[in-house]
Write a structure and sequence with these properties.
2 copies of one chain form a homodimer. In chain A, strands 3-2-1-4-5 form a 5-stranded parallel beta sheet, sandwiched between helices. The longest helix of chain A is centred in the middle third of the chain and has 29 residues. Chain A is of the alpha/beta class and 175 residues long. The N and C termini of chain A lie far apart (40 Å). Chain A contains 6 helices and 5 strands. At the A-B interface, helix 1, helix 6 and strand 5 of A face helix 1, helix 6 and strand 5 of B.
Chain lengths: 175, 175
C-alpha cells in the first residue's frame, strides 16, 4: 500500500552565531518539526535528503586574518571548510539513523537559493523543506530570503517553516 | 507514540472555469498530493481542516445580469452562494470520509489571504497547505497571490503546492 517513500529535501545550514558550530536554529527547528508533524511514527514512509550549501564568501570570513604563504595553506582552508560541512550533516544523519529514517546528505558550494533550486531540479524530491528566520521586512533587506525565493522558484512543493519566536537569538538576524 | 494527530489546514476554492462547478484545479491537486505524499497510509495521524473563503465580489459576478426586486431575491442569492460553498466542501469531506481521515470544513467570507491568516491564528493548525497556479510574474499581477502572502504572514508553517504544468487549463489564469 505504501510504495516508494516520500522524498523530502531539506536545505540546512550552519548557525551564524559566533562560537556555535552547529546547525542553525531554523534548520534544526525545521528538521525537528518535520519529524514530529510529518513523519510521525511512519518512519519507513519517508526519506530525508539533506542539502548543505556552503557560501564561499561567508565560509571564508574567518580567513580575513589568515595569511596564505603556500598552496598548502589553501588546502588546509578547504579541508577545514569540508570538515565543518561534514560536521553539520553528521548531526542530521545521526539523528535520522537513531530514528530509523533513511536519508542522504551532500554539500554544494554557491548561492544557497540557486543551488537549492538547481538540486531540486536534479534530484526531484517530492517536496522541499526550508527553515526561515521569520524576519520582518526591514531585517530581511540585509539577509536575503532563501525561503521566499525557493517557494516561488523551486520545481516542487515547498514547506516554509519559520523559526519559533521563543527561539530567536538576541540579534534576530543571527540564526 | 503517535499522540494528537497533525492538524493540516487547507485553503480550498472553486474553479474559475465557467460551467465547471467544482474545486479549482490547484485546490484539488494540493489535496490529492497531501494525501499521497504526507498522509500516506497513516490516516489516523492527520486531521484535515478545510477552509473555503468566499469572495463577495467574485461570487456575486453572475449577479450582474440579475434583477433584485425584493428582499427575497437577495435571500435567494445568499442561499445559492451557501449551496455552492457547501457543494465545494462536500467534495473534500466525502473524500476524507472514504479514506478514514478525520476532517472539518467551514466557510468564511472576505479576502482569501486575510481570512486564511486570520483563521490560522484562531484555529492554530500545525501547518497550512495552499495550492498555487504557479504563474509567472506577468500573469501574477492580475490575479494576486494568496499563497505568497500566506507563506509570509501565516503564523504557522506553510506548504505551497504549485499546479502541475500538465494540468494547467488553456488560459493559465483560470484554475
Amino acid at each position: 500500500m505504501e510504495g516508494e517513500p516520500t522524498r523530502i529535501m531539506m536545505g540546512v545550514n550552519e548557525s551564524t552565531i559566533k562560537g556555535y558550530p552547529h546547525a542553525s536554529i531554523s534548520s534544526k527547528g525545521a528538521f525537528e518539526w518535520t519529524l514530529q508533524k510529518i513523519v510521525r511514527s511512519n518512519t519507513s514512509g519517508f526519506k530525508l535528503l539533506f542539502l548543505h550549501v556552503q557560501v564561499p564568501d561567508e565560509d571564508g570570513f574567518d580567513d580575513m586574518d589568515s595569511i596564505y604563504a603556500s598552496p598548502e595553506d589553501f588546502k588546509n582552508m578547504k579541508n577545514r571548510d569540508r570538515a565543518r560541512g561534514t560536521h553539520l550533516l553528521e548531526f542530521f544523519v545521526t539523528r535520522c539513523h537513531e530514528m530509523g529514517i533513511s536519508c542522504e546528505a551532500w554539500i554544494k558550494r554557491g548561492d544557497p537559493k540557486e543551488e537549492i533550486c538547481h538540486e531540486v531540479k536534479r534530484v526531484q524530491p517530492d517536496f522541499l523543506v526550508v527553515g526561515s528566520r521569520g524576519l520582518g521586512p526591514f531585517q530581511r533587506v540585509f539577509v536575503g530570503t532563501v525561503s521566499e525565493f525557493c517557494a516561488k522558484h523551486a520545481e516542487c512543493p515547498v514547506l516554509t517553516i519559520k523559526r519559533r519566536a521563543d527561539e530567536a537569538p538576541q540579534d534576530p538576524v543571527d540564526d
